[in-house]
Amino acid sequence: MSKIVGIDLGTTNSLVATVDSGIPYVIADTDGQRLCPSVVHFSAAEAAPLVGHAANRVRVLQPATTVYSVKRFMGRRGADIAREELQVTYPVRGEGAGPVTIPIHGRDFTPEEISAEVLKRLKLAAEADLGEPVTRAVITVPAYFNDAQRNATKRAGELAGFTVERIVNEPTAAALAYGLDRLQEHSKIAVYDLGGGTFDLSILELNNGVFQVLSANGNTRLGGDDLDQRLVAHLATLIKSSGGPDLTSSQLSTPNSHHLPLLARLREAAEAAKIRLSTETSVEIALPFLTPDFSFSYRLTCEELERLTRDIVERTRPHCLRSLADAKLEARQLDQVILVGGQTRMPLVRRLVSEWFSCAEFEEERGGVRLGDRFHERTGPMLNTSQNPDEAVALGAAIQAEILSGGFKNVLLLDVTPLSLGIETFGGLMNIIIPRNSTIPVKAGEVFTTAVDHQREMLIHVLQGERERAADNWSLGKFAVQFERAPRGVPRVGVQFEIDANGILHVLARDLKTGVQQVVQMKSAVDVADTEVQRMVEESVEHAFEDLSARRWIEAKLKAQEVLTAAQAGLAECATELDPAYRAQVEAAIHAVTAALATEQPATQTGELARLQAAHAALDAATQPLAEILMDKAMEAMLRQRGAIT
Length: 646
Ligand code: AMP
Known about the structure:
- This protein is of the alpha+beta class and 646 residues long.
- The protein has 16 helices and 29 strands.
- It has four domains: 4-222 and 315-414, ATPase, nucleotide binding domain (Nucleotidyltransferase, domain 5, 2-Layer Sandwich); 224-309, Actin, Chain A, domain 4 (Alpha-Beta Complex), CATH 3.90.640; 417-530, Substrate Binding Domain Of DNAk, Chain A, domain 1, CATH 2.60.34.10; 544-645, Substrate Binding Domain Of Dnak, Chain:A, Domain 2, CATH 1.20.1270.10.
- 36% of the residues lie in helices and 26% in strands.
- A hairpin with a 4-residue loop joins strand 27 (493-499) and strand 28 (504-511).
- It starts with a strand and ends in a 5-residue tail after the last helix.
- Mean pLDDT is 84; it is low at 361-378.
């Protein structure tokens, strides 16, 4: 079996890492470079593309044929690019629900084809380093990537010649990298990941080598590129107002615009200035000969950059709050906030994150953050920048790869159940026992009874899914539990679901009277393909109203059926004793319920449900005197039996 490598396929840079003798490391290419810019340049139609640093170098000169930040287009639909605020200097096409394509030299590339070129480069670097073919990989994605985006990432890996063993969320990978040398701790960690194009905030719990993801929130269109964009717009305004070319209105997808090379130069200068301002108080932005008779130069201060971009960084805050709320935690209950992603090197980001999470002992210095050494006196979480923010994700991916290969046995990355698990109950409804997103291992149970008199067994039909009706969910298996004959409602069967640490579901069903039980192992309950989970969740949302009315209809029907059966039995028992007018009244009420129950389709119309409920209520009211007569008769029979009356 070939080695599994870990890959961080980033918006700006990509990295490949592996584990050697228990030590994870980022693989350098033959030039000694560990970061591979996620940039691909096509010099001519048939020529092999330039990838990484070489492509980055020609980006300014050949902006229309050099693709960067393509991660933003992965798995997106044509309609999405119209909403995309990011300006890129290469053409991007797409309409409606169609795919996004990048036309270059007469050929339409998909974003995954471009990403595959970056992945091929990493594959070569890994093969050179390991001295053997590398065909298996773990690739990371932002936690907030949807199914289409994850699939596109997987496809990119396959196009590059990898078998993609696992797609892992970037923050989880980062926490894994952080956690490896602190396995004995029990702590709660927030991973704040602000990269080039995406933002994620995840909250994880680490307990003796076991990781649990408590919550994740983020935005796939928020990152360092937005800050660059803001700075570019600001500089373009200054250039225009000082008599230079008008770069303010250059639009996305206008590859022939003669302003594109200028825009690319401006963008590069802006990003470089932004990066330098993480360690300097002011920088000189110089763009000589933007046009033959115009040169631009400007001194940008850290304060000005912060003023220009603060609101973009602040857009990450609601995601932090939501993630905390989902994890049911206060910021102060966290132990660590880990910073991941190149953009978190910006002092403003560190300051704001520290403020929002009430990080203790935060002291800013130029060039980094010093953490107070009185750690034990802290009142809030510690801002942890001990990991290299650019490498943590790739290292974590390599650790995950090693876990999959059977290494690092003392680390267990806990998963959550992707879909709800339950059993089919009366009326063909799904009764959830373990809701989706429950952290595993998990155990839960419920007691069920029979709906029909003298039933001798109960069929346990195990289901997985988010739909209300059993038939719309997936069937994981069926088995029967036997018990003694008894009137309906009397037998009691306890059903317990347990998902073990490997994601295997064990279902136990026990007759509570005799204690006789059966345990059945179902197929893996956790390892469901992401696509299937996404489809199931999407369908449940799509059919939410319909499903809800189906459930209400079935429940109303079951209740009405119960009253109907009792009324019919009562009427048969006392037929001769009832006043004919009253009997006709009960019969009419029975008829109304029977008619309402005859509706085949579930009541998507509230009118049908209301009609059934009204008929049910009328029958209930009409049978009150009948119930009293039956009660008297039962009492009389009992007393007679005891010899009290003759
Ligand atoms: P990533 O996607 O993690 O590679 O992050 C890339 C983003 O981080 C880009 O927007 C970079 O401009 C930004 N970045 C990298 N280094 C720094 C730095 N020292 N200061 C500010 N931003 C940086």
